[in-house]
Amino acid sequence: MQFLRSLSGRFLILTVIFVMLAEILIFVPSIARFRQEFLMDRLDRAQIASLALLADDQISADLQEELLFNAGVYNVVLRRDEARQLVLSAPLPSAISETYDLRDPTPITLIQDSLRFLMQPDDEIIRVIGEPSNMGGLLIEVTVDSAPLRAAMLDYGLRILVLSAVISVVTAALLFLAVRGFLVKPIRRVVGHMKVYAEAPDDARRIIEPSSTTTEILQAEEALKSMQQQLTASLKQRERLAQLGGAVAKISHDLRNILTSAQLFTDRIEMSEDPAVKRMAPKLVNSITRAVHLCESTLAYGKAEEQAPTLSRFMLIDIVSDVIESERLAVGDADVSFGEDIPATLELRGDSEQIYRVISNLVRNARQAIVNTGSPGEIVISAEETPESWEICVSDTGPGLPAKAKEHLFQPFQGGATKGGTGLGLSIAAELIRGHGGTLDLELSDETGTTFRISMPRGEVSAA
């Protein structure tokens, strides 16, 4: 059973079947041709016997019987000069049952007559009509016994079938060996390489080297090599990311402790009577609080335990104002202006800290892109509320994203929007919005500027 399930075994069986079918298609016209030649031979013999009688019409009965026996017929009727003459005759054992005319028959007629003849199991007397050879008359007609003809046809058919079986077996064996050599062995080699590579996919020495001389197998080996190279590179990158994540977790742990101490100092700063300090202190406290939360989130992420967003109602204008105030401080001497188009009553349901991080990442990227050009620019944050969702857009008049950044936009360490960027900001932003059931999409990016759209669904997910 295992052999029949293999490719070479099934190919062997199919080859035998197809060759036998081809031989059967050849057998039918062959047996029809054999029957025609057999009957034509009887007509020729009968003609020769009749010519002997015509040469000397005073032959004995014994000689006449011998002529008929040698011709294999019971009687011979020859038409010469428009006269139909019974030349040789002998008593018929039974009545004539069928008449076959061999004067210019069609192939279909010969095949039908042959098949019908083989299907008839009883011996019978048949009449055969043909044309004499070598212009020996207008018509020759003989009566013969069907038994010798049927026996000869069966013997011929059996020899054809045996020969067909031998040809099928030999052909199938040769094709079997060819398939094993040119197809099965290369496939087994590819499968072997896959198994060896699966044992240690990070070992570049196990990557297959294409060497097949068959075009299709070579293409499969080249595709496998490309896939293995990409997988090996991805595994190495993940290993480096895992190591980097461990280092970041350690740094975040210590940084959280430092920022916690800084929080204690800001509590004292808030007691100052200086108006400027009173105005800036709350923003400083909020920034340090957010930094502490970020460190805690980083530690949780390093443990693969990042928390889901804590949903609550908040005013979007407050978040946007904090982001713009922070970015204005970071602009310095650059000519970058900020604008907002946020309805004062627009209230979102989500995690305010995470939404702050998303908008802050987008605005920071836009500000850095404009500053790097050395030209004036503007960043606008707008929002609207629809019956289905909250839509937030962050637009800038910067130079647009590079082609590489567009290709790997939300992939960490590959989609950096600015020179020297890691692409982590957009990756984190997209992940945070997905946690809210929404999407972060690049809506526009060309020489006129860039626009990102945040879409957050308003409805809650039903249990149904």
UniProtKB/TrEMBL annotation:
Residues 217-244 form a coiled coil. Residues 250-460 form the Histidine kinase domain. It holds the Pfam family HATPase_c. This is histidine kinase. It catalyses: ATP + protein L-histidine = ADP + protein N-phospho-L-histidine. One of its GO terms (molecular function) is kinase activity. The keyword Iron-sulfur does not apply. It comes from Roseovarius phycicola. The chain crosses the membrane at residues 12-32, 156-179.
